Amino acid sequence: MIGLISATAAGTAARDRLAAAWPDRTRVYEGPVGDAVRAAFAECEQLVCFLATGAVVRLLAPLLGDKTTDPGVVCVDEGGRFAVSLVGGHGGGANELAAEVGELLGAQPVVTTATDATGLAGLDTLGLPVEGAVAAVSRALLDGEPVVLDTEVSWPLPPLPVAAEGSHVIRVTDRAVQPAEHEVLLRPPSLVVGVGASKGAPVEEVLELIQEALRDAGLSVRSVAELATVDAKSAEPGIVRAAERLGVPLVTRSAEELAAVEVPNPSDAPLAAVGTPSVAEAAALAGGGELLVPKRKSARADGHASMATCAVVRRPARGRLAVVGLGPGARDLLTPRAKAELRRASVLVGLDQYVDQIRDLLRPGTRILESGLGAEEERARTAVAEAGKGLAVALIGSGDAGVYAMASPALAEASDDIDVIGVPGVTAALAAGAILGAPLGHDHVSISLSDLHTPWEVIERRVRAAAEADLVVTFYNPRSRGRDWQLPKALAILAEHREPTTPVGVVRNASRPDESSRLTTLAALDPATVDMMTVVTVGNTATRDIAGRMVTPRGYRWQEAAS
Ligand code: SAH
User: Fold this and answer.
1) Residues sharing a CB contact under 8 Å with residue 86, sequence separation 6 or more, in sequence order
2) Relative to the CA of 429, which ligand 1 atom is closest?
3) Residue 214, SS3?
């Protein structure tokens, strides 16, 4: 919940806008400002104060505790010009909140936390538990001192500017080690603990068994990602509570699935009870990985039979491949999600001219694998291979990366051992459509005229089908130096079914600095004005030039009424 506090009329007006925009996330605190701030600080995760920073600092000072638990506080000035992240930039989420509030109120977000201001990923914002010398190592990163990244367990981290040698260390490990003096430990969620338990096994017995197994194997409980067991035990109180106490999800699988997993220590007891020769080992190993602790049983001091078993597996790191569309060119047509994914990736793969388009957005330490025109398959393979190593990779393409672009060759290569995140982009047909008017108001298709990968017969058949079906057609890759007869041929096919006066829009470099566009007709189009930076949109039989804009009516009743 976000507590909102204001004092003046202008502040209250801005406060009300925020409250109206986020009714479920906000709570308004009325009354004397001091009481309101104190109450909100105690009750909310975040505060937005429409007050001077000085006033807020004085009110907050006696309340401040620890940056990991204090609420995040954002101040908005009387003029609504700035949204200042005042307290809890990372831990309290105030930096992000300042950006959100700024977006909503048209205010400039002000963030002074060093790692954010310089575009570095804060060590405490990586989404992994962190231990050790966070401040010292962050300082070293900022000062450009050499920091070594020691990845015992690979994990898809955001970029960090690291060196081969240095006095400060970021160590990614699931082992139960203590951080050295200039060292930060990042805890990847790499361990899966398989558990079995007989009916009524006490939670203490299950927990103790898990903790002992981890301790004996020298593993950190903070790297436990999940408990795993068989479906039949999904409601077994000892197991359910153990997962709750560890703060991890409980994942269950069917007995058939577990029975199919090869394990070193099968036995008859679980086979008779739940239908699989192994619960703990099989559940831990079901997602693949390396068995670090084979099945062990709980010890019972009172001489009773043991009621629980467990096994620990280090699961393979899942890499992260983001396939990101950059839009047609203009920075404000690059989506915020695309921007976030570009900054999330430690490896960026793309065509050099597209990398240039977004280079300034990348975080320091991003490894850039750029290549020239062609080499598409190789780029796709590279991106998938890097993700396969457990890294966070962004594969970029102009417009939408799934439209005549990198997504399909990449996903044709990828197996299910990586996560794939697609970020849609504004494709050329849409960017051009917006410039031309409303040419895509009814059914439409895109056709690429490049016969490099597709036989011309196939292309021609599709053009003919579009012509007969009276679809609006956008031609991608319409004409290059070596391919100049395809466009006239395609237009001639369309002309067999459409009037010579059918509007045709030609848009070159949509949303780029040298954008140009022309509205002409099927009969008057000069193919020489078309090149590979261009899309050509041909109207259907209902498309009209209205006040210089290309308009395809939404319904054909409109056309009947007009004729
Ligand atoms: N993935 C891209 C398309 C790649 S195919 C997208 O979704 O837009 C390359 C073709 O797209 C070019 O030959 C051209 O026809 C078209 N194109 C891409 N960007 C363009 C732009 N900004 N303006 C006009 N046409 C563009």
Assistant:
1) 53, 56, 57, 60, 73, 74, 75, 94
2) 8
3) helix
Ligand 1, atom 18: closest residue by C-alpha: 428
Q: How far apart are the CA of 458 and the centre of ligand 1, in A? A: 21
Q: Which residue has the tokens 């709570």?
A: 27
* Ligand 1 site, residue 429, Cβ cutoff 6 A: no
Q: Which residue has the tokens 């839009």?
A: 327
Looking at residue 333, what DSSP letter applies? G
Residue 269 Cα distances to 24, 300, 421, angstroms: 51, 18, 43
- Residue nearest to ligand 1 atom 11, measured at CA: 476
273: left (phi over 0), alpha (psi -120 to 50) or beta: alpha
Question: Which of 299, 334, 328, 283 minimizes the C-alpha distance to 204?
Answer: 299
Burial class (CB in 10 A: 0-12, 13-18, 19+), 529: middle
Burial class (CB within 10 angstroms; exposed 0-12, middle 13-18, buried 19+) of 179: middle
Q: How far apart are CA 351 and CA 542, in angstroms?
A: 39
Nearest CA to ligand 1 atom 6: 399
Ligand 1 binding pocket includes 368 (Cβ within 6 Å) = no
pTM of the model: 0.80
For the CA of 402, the nearest atom of ligand 1: 1
The domains of the chain, with CATH numbers, are: 2-112 (3.40.50.11220), 127-186 (no CATH), 194-214+223-314 (3.30.420.180), 319-426 (3.40.1010.10), 429-562 (3.30.950.10)
Read off the pLDDT of residues 346-403 as tens digits, 9 standing for 90 and up: 999 999 999 999 999 998 889 999 988 778 889 999 999 999 999 999 999 999 999 9
